[in-house]
Write a structure and sequence with these properties.
This protein is α/β, with parallel strands linked by helices. It contains seven helices and 13 strands. Helix 1 links the parallel strand 1 and strand 2.
Length: about 300
């Protein structure tokens, strides 16, 4: 059974100023999602599932169904505020959903095979999909998951600081833990982050998570159980978010699962800020000129 690509596309992109998930970056209006799906199809994936907000549904189908018909199976799931599926009867008021691991669990009824999950607005590169496909076909099991590890120097924006999940990798190549570092940026040729008013220099080859994970469907039950506890504990905290690294950290510490960190040399690029868009477009045009993608992605 071919693995599935699960795309996180329910965010509101507050710093970007518009719905960057469906913004045009390629020469024929291609979104970043288009390039992700193209690479996934090329690597061998058999289905793509979009995690979206219900009000985006018609818009997404109009954009993606005509170009993907006959190329890959598609499905859509909604990230909502309804907590009843998690056994929570009380209403918890929030302005936005509960985060990436909450979105992950929304796909439990449509994914029955090994899968990977990615962000809609991140460009990961074909090598990453090929390596993840190989892992999902030959190595993954219910206690052995994975994470694509990017060199931190290949993941930063020139237009402001970012938050990165800095990975500690053990001698066997497995994840020990992830530390969320805020205000990460280039200072001259160094990569630094700020902590307690001090600048800390990171090795430019340090592995970071760009939210590209490989799982079996077992993770749905594991994460759902954790989410119920998290939601009830944070009922009075409207900004609390249930992130995938929280799940992975808990699974590692409880020894319920290990995570192989799969290294990639790919240059990541994405759109945190509106000013990032011309750089992303230039990078895509460079890849097209180099033969990595056709001028018109879907022909």
């Amino acid at each position: 059974m071919k693995p599935t690509l699960l795309i996180l596309a329910a965010g509101m992109a507050s710093r970007y100023g518009s719905m960057k998930q469906i913004d045009a970056f390629g020469p024929n209006g291609e979104t970043i999602i288009d390039y992700s799906i193209y690479d996934a199809i090329k690597a061998g994936f058999g289905k793509v599932v979009f995690i979206i907000r219900e009000e985006f549904f018609d818009h997404f189908k109009t954009i993606f169904e005509p170009k993907l018909k006959g190329k890959i199976k598609t499905a859509y799931v909604f990230q909502s505020f309804d907590l009843k599926p998690f056994g929570i009867e009380q209403t918890i008021e929030r302005l936005k959903p509960w985060g990436t691991a909450h979105a992950l669990v929304a796909a439990k009824d449509v994914i029955k095979e090994p899968f990977c999950i990615i962000n809609a607005d991140d460009f990961y590169g074909f090598e990453s999909y090929q390596k993840m496909y190989d892992f999902l076909c030959h190595e993954v099991d219910d206690t052995h998951f994975s994470l694509m590890g990017y060199q931190i120097s290949k993941t930063l924006s020139k237009h402001g600081s970012v938050t990165r999940g800095v990975c500690a990798v053990d001698p066997t190549g497995h994840l020990s833990n992830i530390d969320e570092r805020t205000n990460v940026y280039f200072k001259n040729r160094d990569v630094v982050y700020e902590e307690n008013g001090h600048q800390v220099v990171l090795d430019s080859h340090t592995s970071v998570s760009m939210n590209f994970w490989g799982f079996t469907p077992k993770v749905f039950d594991l994460a759902a159980t954790m989410f119920k506890t998290f939601a009830l504990d944070n009922a009075a905290n409207p900004k609390a978010e249930f992130f995938i690294p929280l799940v992975s950290d808990a699974l590692i510490k409880s020894k319920k699962a290990s995570f192989k960190v799969i290294p990639t040399q790919n240059q990541w690029f994405g759109v945190t800020y509106k000013e990032d868009k011309p750089i992303v477009q230039a990078n895509i045009n460079g890849l097209i000129e180099g033969g990595a993608y056709p001028q018109n992605l879907w022909g």
